[in-house]
């Protein structure tokens, strides 16, 4: 299977693992000369909060989720990392439940690999990923790479 598109999906909990996510996606995408789709997925409440925080003009009829994602610090930091390694990328923003929206984006972008972050679990929770990661792992149309922060 040829690797052409890698979806790196991030959300509000990923700001503390930018370096680990960037390293993982570069490791997968760079050798294959694949394009990375940097996707920030927001729930409705998160989206409203980010629009306020980033001072978007709420008088506009519709604010483009791609533009919101592009201005988000997590995506800007990831872009900087990918630029360092000369990895091609595009930015996508989406609003919805994290897991199902990531799976939908993987299908829409004809993704060959999804990269998602997660957090360390308690000993009893290790058998079960977080609900977002679990949904992506079980429902993704392609292989998934799960990245934990190196500090955990």
Number of strands: 5
Top CATH class: Alpha Beta
Instruction: Assess the beta-strand content as a share of residues.
Output: 15-25%
The succession of helices and strands, N to C, reads: EHEHHHEHEHE
Organism: Natronolimnobius baerhuensis
InterPro entries: Rossmann-like_a/b/a_fold, Universal_stress_UspA, UspA
Protein name: Universal stress protein
Family: Belongs to the universal stress protein A family.
What would your notes on this structure say?
With 152 residues, the protein is of the alpha/beta class. It has one domain (5-147): 3-Layer(aba) Sandwich (Rossmann fold), CATH 3.40.50.620. 40% of the residues lie in helices and 21% in strands. It is built from six helices and five strands. Strands 3-2-1-4-5 form a five-stranded parallel sheet, with helices on both faces. α6 links the parallel β4 and β5. α1 crosses α4 (73-84) and α5 (98-108) runs parallel beside α6 (131-139). The radius of gyration is 15 Å and the shape is globular. The model has no long low-confidence stretch (mean pLDDT 89). Residues 5-148 form the UspA domain. InterPro entries: Rossmann-like_a/b/a_fold, Universal_stress_UspA, UspA. This is Universal stress protein.
């Amino acid at each position: 299977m040829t690797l052409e598109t890698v979806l790196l999906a991030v959300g509000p909990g990923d700001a503390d693992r930018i370096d680990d996510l960037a390293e993982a996606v570069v490791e997968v995408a760079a050798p294959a000369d694949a394009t990375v789709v940097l996707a920030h997925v927001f729930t409705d409440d998160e989206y409203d909060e980010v629009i306020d925080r980033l001072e978007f003009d709420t008088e506009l009829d519709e604010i483009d989720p791609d533009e919101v994602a592009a201005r988000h610090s997590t995506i800007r930091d990831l872009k900087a990392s990918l630029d360092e390694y000369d990895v091609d990328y595009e930015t996508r923003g989406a609003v919805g439940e994290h897991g199902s929206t990531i799976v939908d984006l993987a299908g829409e972008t004809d993704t060959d690999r999804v990269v998602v972050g997660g957090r360390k679990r308690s000993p009893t929770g290790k058998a079960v990923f977080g609900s977002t990661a679990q949904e992506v792992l079980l429902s993704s149309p392609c292989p998934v790479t799960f990245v934990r922060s190196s500090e955990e």
